[in-house]
Amino acid sequence: MSDTLFHKIIRREIPADIVYEDEHLIAFRDIAPQAPVHVLFVPKADFATLDDVPEEQALVVGRLATAAAAYARRQGFAGDGYRVVMNCNRDAGQTVFQVHLHLLAGAPLGRFGTAG
Ligand code: AMP
User: For residue 100, which atom of ligand 1 is closest to its CA?
Assistant: First the structure.
């Protein structure tokens, strides 16, 4: 297994506010939230970026999305809405090189995707 910050959280070597875990993935609150709800969904399988996930491993990514949706339903904000984001490499601002999905919710969210 690689040695990113998120791998250390998976191995319980550093603390995190874990809100969900199963055999495939872990979810914990972002330390610098960009919305009232900001949870990161991280697979236990080792892939640095979305670009490193081969098609035959598509379920690794699919599970992040369905786990985020299930969390939103359990927490009661699925109907109000939420956003999921995956940053890949430099131009998207990826800072932790273990693939992950951001779940953002809890207030109307601004538009996204602008350059600069
Ligand atoms: P990204 O920029 O897409 O690579 O996202 C990495 C995210 O990890 C950022 O939103 C950070 O705020 C978050 N982060 C960094 N360190 C921690 C930590 N120790 N616990 C929880 N989230 C973290």
Answer: 3
Residue 96 Cα to ligand 1 midpoint, Å, equals 7
pLDDT digits (tens, 9 = 90+) for 46-60: 999 999 999 999 999
Query: What burial class does residue 108 get, using C-beta atoms within 10 Å of its C-beta: 0-12 exposed, 13-18 middle, 19+ buried?
Result: exposed
The total number of structural domains that make up the chain: 1
Which structural domain range is residue 63 located in?
5-105
pTM beyond cutoff 0.85: yes
Query: Is 20 among the domain residues?
Result: yes
